[in-house]
């Protein structure tokens, strides 16, 4: 049995349909009326109004496969076997309907009966104080004590400021000792790639108050999320999410473009995986109407696209290539997400234009950087100043890590602290200018296409994350 991504997606959704759930299509990556997030990062986020009771759901039981973007995971991408900036999250949701007694046995039924995963490979965790979930796993499902791990708040309690929150229970798959870190205490919860977390079941049963107390909710909810890529990785017995059927096809297209073979050299493999992942993110973001810009979502898109293009250069690709990789994404995922096919030409165009812009700035920035390096050397220093690094970043769109890399080849370090100081100054200035010049042509240009509802603080956070890593 192949268990391709398309098949697994369908198996999951139809399983929960058989349990009375209404299947909804994925929501856009762009959140609606939710200034707290830039991009949809979980199956539950577009459903928040149903959980909070603000809106009436079309059904009390819903199942989806949701497109997600998680930029905070960017550092892991290509390095762990299980993280992408883009992934699809399978989920089943109860809005004040069924609760733990149904959700837990159904999750087990899907894993062991429908997918026939051998029970000995599966482990679960519960929140340390959640005896109810523990007992369901132990007594109703029949899991022995040594298979149920009690973890603390950090891992097994889901909350986000005030509002609906609660404990969660996660399902892990043991990929075997050869996939692990080999440490003697390696077990469920270890951050290595052996016990891979596949499914999180969240039991939203409390309403967290301003004063930090937890009031039980009248309507208890279920919110679950399983990464389709991780499930496919486990079912196909491959090394990483980059090797599951449809994603491997994209990876192979990257290798063909670069004329390199996968699995020969670690550094090259990381670049190949980064491009593969970012090509998915970028294609999906553009298909949802996001355009490259210097703010908010557009900035995330710009950074991902430029990062992929740069890794392309590292692999020796010296021409525009991302649109062709996007084509492969469309080919592989166009049936599951029909708007990809409808917007194919548009997606190609947006991607190529941005990639072209990037190459132009890179070429310009390279000669400026060469000048700076000469300057620094003739001053008898061995460090580029924060101002220089910032100027390269700000005026020439030159990513920090590229500056670092090229400088270090010449034996020169960079003042990263100084860079971040300049960055903070710039943000403060932009904020001030934004306040005082609303409506001017300058403002319109700089903040074009931005969502004024996004709190500045949050945008800063996301930008910083991208700046730090890309
Ligand atoms: P991890 O600890 O591995 O980073 P997580 O605890 O952050 O995962 P959750 O927020 O619980 O993940 O999301 C639910 C599920 O979504 C996870 O169990 C996993 O299968 C999947 N998932 C989460 N982050 C990613 C990612 N970056 N790439 C692919 N799948 C992911
Ligand atoms: Mg995570
Ligand atoms: Mg986790
Ligand atoms: Mg989790």
Indicate the CATH topology of the largest domain.
BirA Bifunctional Protein, domain 2
The CATH architecture name of the largest domain reads 2-Layer Sandwich
By secondary-structure content and strand pairing, the structural class works out as alpha/beta
Choose one word for the global shape: globular
Instruction: Determine the fraction of residues in helical runs and give it as a percent range.
Output: 40-55%
Total helical segments = 17
Total DSSP E strands: 11
The major β-sheet equals: 9 strands, mixed
N-to-C order of helices and strands: HEHEEHEHEHEEEEHHHHHHHEHHEHHH
Level-1 CATH class name of the largest domain = Alpha Beta
Radius of gyration: 24 Å
Q: What is the terminal separation in angstroms?
A: 39 Å
Fourth-tier CATH superfamily name of the largest domain: Bira Bifunctional Protein, Domain 2
Note the beta-strand portion: 15-25%
Low-pLDDT residue spans: 437-470
The number of distinct structural domains comes to 2
Mean pLDDT: 89
Question: In a nutshell, what does this entry contain?
Answer:
It is found in: Cytoplasm. The protein has 470 residues and is α/β, with parallel strands linked by helices.
Structure, described:
The structure is a single chain. The protein has about 475 residues and is α/β, with parallel strands linked by helices. The protein is built from 17 helices and eleven strands. The protein has helices at about 5-20, 50, 100-115, 130-140, 155, 230-235, 245-260, 265-285, 295-315, 320-335, 340, 345-380, 385-395, 400-410, 415-435, 440-445, 455-470; strands at about 20-25, 60-70, 85-95, 120-125, 150, 155-160, 165-175, 195-210, 215-225, 385, 415. Strands 1, 2, 3, 4, 5, 6, 7, 8 and 9 form a nine-stranded mixed beta sheet that branches. The protein has a two-stranded parallel ribbon with strand order 10-11. A hairpin with a 4-residue loop joins strand 6 and strand 7. The radius of gyration is 24 Å and the shape is globular. The structure holds adenosine-5'-triphosphate and magnesium ion (MG) (3 copies). Adenosine-5'-triphosphate binds near residues 70 and 230. Its main location: cytoplasm. It is found in: Cytoplasm. Its cofactor is Zn(2+). It is an enzyme of class 6 (ligase).
